[in-house]
Amino acid sequence: MRLLWIVVPALLLTSGCKKHEAPPQQKTLHEIMKDEVDKRGDFLWDLTNPHVGGDAGLDSSTMSDDDWKKLASAAVDLQQAALDLASLKDPIVVVKPGVKIADEGVPGGDSAASVQANVDKDPEGLRNYANSLAQDMADLAKAANKHDAAAAGPIINQLDGVCESCHLEFWYPSQKKLVDQIRKAGGDPTLK
Ligand code: HEC
Question: Among candidates 60, 56, 34, which has minimal Cα distance to 45?
Answer without folding.
Answer: 56
